[in-house]
Amino acid sequence: FVLFPHVVCGVSVRELMKEHADVYEESTKSHAFLKACRDGTIDEYAFNTWLVQDSLFVDEFFDFTYRLYRTADRHREPEAAKVLKDSLGVIEDELAWFDEKIDERAPRLKYRRPSFATKGYTHWLHRLNEDHEDDFVLKFAIFYGVEKVYQEAWESVRLSPNSPKWMREYAERWGSREFGEYVDKLEKMADGYLQKMHEDEINLLRKFFRELLEFEVMFWSMALAAEPDPDEQKTVVASPEVWELAKLNDVDLEDVVPSGSKGRILVEDVIEYVERVGDTAKRVENIRDEL
Fold first, then answer.
1. Range with the poorest average pLDDT among 21-30, 194-203, 228-237, 267-276
2. CA–CA separation, 255 and 101 (whole Å)
3. pTM (2 decimals)?
4. In angstroms, rounded to a whole number, what is the distance separating the alpha carbons of residues 197 and 216?
């Protein structure tokens, strides 16, 4: 039995990620945001900022997952297609969960636009889809990488005896044994697919893993650097046009902007929020119907 010399065997996705030891460690354990979550000193405004921005990221990650599912289906990869289809259902539920938690913790932050870090990360995922539309193995490895970083980071918080009680729900969501088993399954699948890659494709994946990890570090840093906006203490301003737009998009602003509220929210931010929520609802419905 002779292997083609340009095909790389015996490589694992975890090894490829850990080749970037500095950013891997920072993105999964040593970043100041994660340390603060573990030792109980995390600023709640920083955490709430992370929560809102992560919901915006997950919104785009839903699209990435759906397009990956379509690629798996075209490539006749039934196991991957099933896992990704199930993942779409989980992500859909997670988007609703994010809305619930943000309304509980920081409803005003819901109007915040995507941060520079969020825009950069989601644009990167979008470009991966556009530039490598039919590269199932590469995109599946990236899908695994995103999930792996979150699982390992939040597992470190879950296992810490000093993390705040209120954070347990969040740490359990992404750091649970069940989620870890799911990520392990993704890893095993990704390792199998990896054996089909040529050396130049492996090197490209190395590069993309480095970029992924750098975006994760940037995301934690963005949240930790967040500071309250003084304008949030001013009076609410909302025009009839905004409420009409909300009605057309089937978005109930009463849950977010109660009468007599004491914070100023820019009309442009409300409009962008309404359009974003309406667009997400339509996309999720269309994908659900297709599946």
1. 228-237
2. 13
3. 0.81
4. 25
2/248 Cα distance (integer angstroms): 63
The 10s digit of each residue's pLDDT in 89-124 is 999 999 999 999 998 998 777 777 888 899 899 999
- CA dist 56 → 52, 64, 93, 266, 273 (Å): 7, 13, 14, 19, 11
Task: Tell me how far apart the 2 most distant CA atoms of the chain are, in Å.
Answer: 76
Mean pLDDT value of segment 210-235: 80
Other Cβ atoms less than 10 A from the Cβ of 183: the count is 19
Q: Is there a contact between 136 and 75 (Cβ–Cβ < 8 Å)?
A: yes
Distances (CA, A) of 190 to 74, 140, 250, 252: 17, 7, 40, 41
Closest by alpha carbon to 140, among 79, 57, 215?
79
* Among candidate residues 55, 49, 144, the one with its CA nearest the CA of residue 96: 55
Contact at 8 Å (CB) between 77 and 152? Answer: no
What's the CA angle centered on 211, arms 281 and 6, to 5 degrees?
110
205 contacts 197 by C-beta, under 8 angstroms: yes
Q: For residues 279 and 271, is the Cβ–Cβ distance under 8 A?
A: no
